[in-house]
Amino acid sequence: MSVERVRVTVSSADRAARAALSAVTEPGDERIALRVRDAGAEATWQAVLGGDDALDRSRTSRRRAEHVDGGELLERAEQLGIQYLCPSEPGWPAPLDDMAVTLDYGDRVPPPLGLWLYGDGDLAALAESAVAVVGSRACSRYGARVASDLATDLALAGRTVVSGAAYGIDAAAHRGALGVGGETIAVLACGVDVPYPRTHAQLLERIAADGLIVSEVPPGSRPLRAWFLARNRIIAALSAGTVVVEAAPRSGALSTATWTQKLSRETLVVPGPITSDLSAGCHTLVRNGAGTLVTGVADVLEAIGRLGDHMPPDPERETRPIDDLLPVHLMVRERMYADALETVAGLARRTGLPARTVATSLRELAAVGWVTREDGGWRLGSTISPLETRT
Amino acid sequence: MSVERVRVTVSSADRAARAALSAVTEPGDERIALRVRDAGAEATWQAVLGGDDALDRSRTSRRRAEHVDGGELLERAEQLGIQYLCPSEPGWPAPLDDMAVTLDYGDRVPPPLGLWLYGDGDLAALAESAVAVVGSRACSRYGARVASDLATDLALAGRTVVSGAAYGIDAAAHRGALGVGGETIAVLACGVDVPYPRTHAQLLERIAADGLIVSEVPPGSRPLRAWFLARNRIIAALSAGTVVVEAAPRSGALSTATWTQKLSRETLVVPGPITSDLSAGCHTLVRNGAGTLVTGVADVLEAIGRLGDHMPPDPERETRPIDDLLPVHLMVRERMYADALETVAGLARRTGLPARTVATSLRELAAVGWVTREDGGWRLGSTISPLETRT
Hints:
The structure is a homodimer.
Chain A: H1 3-9, H2 12-24, H3 30-39, H4 41-49, H5 61-65, H6 70-79, E1 83-85, H7 97-102, E2 115-118, H8 123-127, E3 130-134, H9 141-156, E4 160-163, H10 169-178, E5 184-187, H11 201-210, E6 212-215, H12 225-238, E7 241-244, H13 253-262, E8 266-269, H14 277-287, E9 292-293, H15 297-307, H16 315-318, H17 327-334, H18 344-351, H19 355-367, E10 371-374, E11 377-380, H20 386-390
Parallel strand pairs in A: 3-4, 3-7, 4-5, 5-6, 7-8, 8-9
Antiparallel strand pairs in A: 1-2, 2-6, 10-11
């Protein structure tokens, strides 16, 4: 992506405002995301500078803002070889826009103001085939082995492995992909130039060389605890599915699973011994119907293949006869509002069906043109159906 | 159960015919089960003696039959302290009649002609709270530990642990129950007086002393390979749910899970490392939606509590308002034939819903009187519903 192409769609003032905002606001701040959407980044930046109470979360952002110059931030980043990529710019991965859609529909997953990128990879290309592999920092040898093997197999299948570069499962996943020359993305809660954890400095260098390091906080930022949870939504959004390899009951990895669900992506779960606390969080996800059990790369590919978001259209589905549709399909369709972008979660609530069943039905309805997939949601299609002719 | 009480409901000739049939027919023979239902045991026995081709499976049963005397079999068994219990006799567990129901509706699970019993336990009382714990003969230490711990916890919760007395998981389950003075039932593929496997002779003696040994083949019978699979349906039928602890992809334990599903009972599955082939069959059950993942006794009790078959009615459910019903409930009910006993499997096929969703909906519909549970199936209830008033 050349800088020239970027400037075609997003003004340098907008970019500077976003960069500045990323330096003084909390990652994933919903009010900031809404204000930027409604008023634009420049006006939001002015509001922060002006001390707008509605936006002032930390009560220090105004004071901090006075010392921030977005243009300077961008310039310094460029000198370090760090790009700043904003929504709608060429190279911005379309799946990330599912976050923007949630601001209106479903559980809110605030989109990042932009993403700081470091490395040789092309984010949009990498995200097209990305699968996240996440889990506990304090993983077991079983978990590390599974994460590494799975990442290796995903890389060999041409998938990008997304993770958070943390100790344990994350590192095993990145290494598994790098080990076979695969591509991998590390999404950090700190600046893309900050080696955190410090002992992963070499790992991060390898990731930058073969893939990409991504963050929504500016270069040089040290990670704050809350930022790890916000960071997890970027991991989920970049990936067609997220594999949770090991997670104790209150593990941070479970937050990635929650983001995954809010974004209608596949949560895939590796089981383990019931005698291991590190698998207890995983088992709970499966028991609650919040995740699909997977036992290897074939299961993962099958599951994200079913999702279809990031996959080429399946010609077989085009010819599926309407006669194959079952009452469950009709029911899902009957509960969709004519003028709304529906979410799987919303329809699941309205119908009482499991979310997985709703998602499957929507995909099958889409195959016959009864509904259409659109920016992370679903809309009634224009095809005349038996239902229309009946009413 | 006294012999006098038995003779009130079933004639000695019928008992003798069933005993004789159990000696010359294959356990679980569907044609025999259907003929006995339609023509009675005595007429079926005469047909076998007369060489009825339609019933002659092994081509040797007629020759064998000529040497069998049912009355003698019963007498010899009585001398050994072995009872023969026939359907509808006092002491016959009601849940076993779910097998008879399947002959008309759903996948056929042929009921046994009767059950040979050895031990001090009361079968009907034990079956009221029974949970099966089954799995691979060649189990891992992990599997053996889980089976033993789970059986111990089930026994401490007042449940009867049902299993097959085989090596591995079965033995660990029986021992786990016996270890805390719990009750346990061993269902054998050989005669109840045949110590098989031989090294389990002492274990079987303990089971007989504290619980019950059950078989549908007469005393003295050596087990045939095919009989183990047929035996598994008795394990499934006696239990509100079956826990599969470890099962390789083609393990016999998976046949118990199949029977469990055919009988609309809960299939509960213990996960394990994905690196262990002994857990692969378990994971497949979960992935296919054929089983519910459980991680301990609480999960098991919750799952079989939900089934409700063997549980006292829940007063809270009586007062559940109809307003709580969701479209999914209406859909399930709309697809039920007015005059039929419906099965979960049949409704799942007809609606396209997962079987678990159908089962949940039926239970919730039953709570408001819209459907009734009956002999292992479901029937439309008589309550006037919004649907009736609408059509």
